[in-house]
Amino acid sequence: EGRVKDKVMLSAFKEHNFDKNDVVYVGDTKDDIIQCRKIGVDIISVVYDNFATHDNFEELNPGHIAYSVKEIEEQILKM
């Protein structure tokens, strides 16, 4: 119900004793970027198809855009 990814992630981190600095979220929506930024979690935005719906991802998540699985791996290694 609604935008709760931030709350769900924080709950999972607490339950599993994860440090949010050791987590990278891979998402494909603008809301994923917003929710991760809200709680300080790094995010890689994936753009595999339907580029029109991702036209401002670079503005919202500069330097953390992946156009393939290989690019996700490259982004993670840079973090």
Derived structural class: alpha/beta
Number of helices: 4
Helical proportion, percent range: 40-55%
Percent of residues in β-strands: 5-15%
The profile of the biggest β sheet is: 3 strands, parallel
Q: What are the low-pLDDT stretches, counting only 5+ consecutive residues below 50? A: none
Cα distance spanning the termini: 31 Å
Order of adjacent strands in the largest pleated sheet: 1-2-3
Overall pLDDT, averaged? 88
What is the radius of gyration?
13 Å
DSSP E strands, number: 3
Label the overall shape.
globular
Return the string of H and E elements.
Answer: HEHEHEH
Describe it:
The chain has 79 residues and is α/β, with parallel strands linked by helices. Helix content is 46%, strand content 14%. It is built from four helices and three strands. It has a three-stranded parallel sheet. The longest helix has 12 residues. It starts with a helix and ends with a helix. 18% of the residues are buried. The model has no long low-confidence stretch (mean pLDDT 88).
